[in-house]
């Protein structure tokens, strides 16, 4: 983990006239899991979406693998090697599992290889490959959303609230999958309300308050911070 893959510098972002992000500085090293925690409405999802080009940054820079991607359109950012799993999964409910996965594949020559890999990671999706996405359980839909992102063969995976609304057993499985994906060489930037799981998994972490980075450190250090324990861990 000796090279910076994602480097966010002094980033501002707005929705209309309302500024959401204020001079945000965040980095993700190659091979890291970095988590971002904070209260609802803090700006966490907006940060991930701004990295992907929608909304556009109003100031500051986003560098990916040394390239300035701040002004690039979203499709070029995805082709550069970033995949985004949005909050709420946003799968195509009226399309089959196979069709959803095909939508994530950027290079047709790699389709079969990637499909085999995601079915190996998520055997349940292989069993339901002809099933409509909207008929899957919440956990299965989250698996599908992650699998669809992996079809693009990303170097960096942006995950927004992957445990949201899932049963505890499925939450545990999703975090095991995240750890496995990272061990395959994919860097991960994780936004997560379940701070206990996220900090335990993360190499490093940031805390966002009202669109600003309030604290940063290793996952272990922040999990032992009394302020973090009171605000996010229920201790």
Plain-language structure description:
By secondary structure, the chain is α/β, with parallel strands linked by helices. It has two domains: 1-81 and 155-235, Rossmann fold (3-Layer(aba) Sandwich), CATH 3.40.50; 89-153, no CATH class. Helices cover 37% and strands 29% of the residues. It contains ten helices and ten strands. A six-stranded mixed β-sheet has the order 6-7-8-3-9-10, with helices on both faces. The longest helix has 16 residues, at 168-183. The two termini are 32 Å apart. The mean pLDDT is 93.
Question: What tags apply to this protein structure?
Answer:
235 residues, alpha/beta, Rossmann fold, 2 domains, six-stranded mixed β-sheet, four-stranded antiparallel β-sheet, 10 strands
